[in-house]
Amino acid sequence: MDNYAIADQFSLLAKLMDIHGENSFRSKSYASAAYNIEQMTAPLSQTDRSLMADLKGIGASTAQKIVEILDTGRMKSLEDMISKTPAGVIAMLQVKGLGPKKISTIWKEMGIESIGELLYACQENRLLLYKGFGAKTQQNVREAIEFLLRHQDRFLYAELETLVQALNTQLESGWPGHRSEITGAFRRQCPEMDRIEFVTTIPLTDLETTLNKDGNDHFDRTDKDSLEWKREEQPRVVFHHTSASGFGTTLFRTSASPEFLIGWEKAGYAAPSTEDESVIFHQAGMITIPACLREAAGVIEQAHNGEVPALIVPEDIRGIIHTHSNWSDGSHTLEEMALGCIEKGYEYLVISDHSRAAQYAGGLSIERIHEQHAAIDALNRKLAPFRIFKSIECDILGDGSLDYPDDVLESFDLVIASVHSNLKMSEEKAMSRLLRAIEHPCTTILGHPTGRLLLSRPGYPVDHLQIIEACAKHGVAIEINAHPRRLDLDWTWIPAAMEKGVMLSIDPDAHAVEAFGDVKYGVLAAQKGGLKAEHNLSSFTLEDFNVWLEDRRATRYA
Ligand SMILES: [Zn+2]
Ligand SMILES: [Zn+2]
């Protein structure tokens, strides 16, 4: 092992000790040992061990550890420290501008254990509430994380959109007369994926020479008809070459999941060579199955029976449900949020600032709720017929109770109940919290039901079917949180919810006017689950939404 590798181990040990708030004298001595080892010209592996402790910046205890590393390749005290630290916290050391002290605050005080969670907290302005974190630091952390995440090999749908568009334009303008189309997981609108795929008639050698402008890119022929393009800090791009006359068939084969293709073959259907993909479905005696539904094989049988649903589209969203204003952790005033809705043609807005337990997010005291209601009443008079509904994103507390007394909860038009604290829990604990909240007569919508953050934090474990059944029984709608990092409820559970007659609600959870656009990602994910507009609360007209709320109040508060 060379000196640099040894120095790295001491450097990491010092940082982890600082994150854990251990003896700073010892951590400093390991940091300086790391520095000194890097400066040494002679390799430690060839240094006389009896003289090791006399080297500059190396004491007896460091010397002992160096010998341990040289003999075993490991350092036990470093391994112990690593095992006590969540992997996501260690990963934060890669974020430029974040030192051990700040990471310690993020982990121990903010309760954040991964980079993705930290990014989300920046977007919610949560860092500003802690000592040592100003707006500038928060912005730097955010940018550093965004940079870092671009290095990872999985990407959110929303992160790839711009690149896909740019490549599309490049292929179209660079090779007029040729045909190229997006395929694979992106065409299926998967919330996350590890590559971008195109079907193209452009010769692969042409693509390779043209795309490799600076000569630094890496290209692989995964098979004779596929070219994989790898660039630093960019997702992989795979090109599937095809003839013009077989374009539709290659598009069909590369768009669907393996399970779908196996099901297609098992059912005895063919995929004849054709220019036009829809011919394949036509010859099989069915309408074209939208690419987003080509996941499980069951949809083939449905299509055969003429049962493919008319999917919800972004234009079906009539109101913006689940938003935060600057009364809690949002960026805009109530009026700015309402005007943003009006400008985009939405009929109503549901303001749901954080409840009082969410102190980090400026949760509202009971007094502030009264003030906000008066402000909303005044705006509703001013902006009619547009309507702002009074809501709250009410924390589901540790025991499953809601964050205010019933008389306060009853003063809202609707209540969105969400878990924001103590996310690390067993399924038993999670279920008892959620079920108790669902049973509360004031709960209207269950917010981001599992708390997951895609590519960064798994949700707490839940029994989805039991939640869906409880929501059906108590008339509670389930949110499809449309933030591209949440998309929670996951689309795979939509069919079960629709079957039980549970309403779903595509909500942007917007902390600013610009975030209303996120409803699109909610719609794309919901399409995968076959959601129809009539099962989506935010597709209700103002009048229907109002009637739905009145009905619920009448039955549940009776
Ligand atoms: Zn929330
Ligand atoms: Zn929210």
Describe the structure.
This protein has helices at residues 3-19, 24-39, 60-72, 76-83, 87-91, 100-109, 115-123, 135-151, 157-174, 184-187, 204-211, 247-255, 258-266, 277-283, 298-304, 334-343, 366-383, 406-409, 427-439, 464-474, 494-499, 519-528, 542-556; strands at residues 155-156, 180-183, 192-193, 195-200, 218-223, 226-230, 236-241, 319-323, 348-354, 387-395, 414-418, 445-446, 477-481, 504-507. It is an alpha/beta fold and 558 residues long. The strands form three sheets. The chain has a seven-stranded parallel sheet. It is globular. It starts with a helix and ends with a helix. One zinc ion binds next to loops.
Largest sheet: 7 strands, parallel
Molecular shape:
globular
CA radius of gyration is 28 Å
Oligomer: single chain
Number of strands: 14
Bound molecules: zinc ion
DSSP strand content: 5-15%
- Helix/strand-derived category reads alpha/beta
Distance between the termini: 74 Å
Number of helices in the DSSP assignment: 23
Classify the helix fraction into a percent range. 40-55%
**Main β-sheet, spatial strand arrangement:** 8-9-10-11-12-13-14
What is the overall pLDDT average? 94
Catalogue the unreliable spans: none
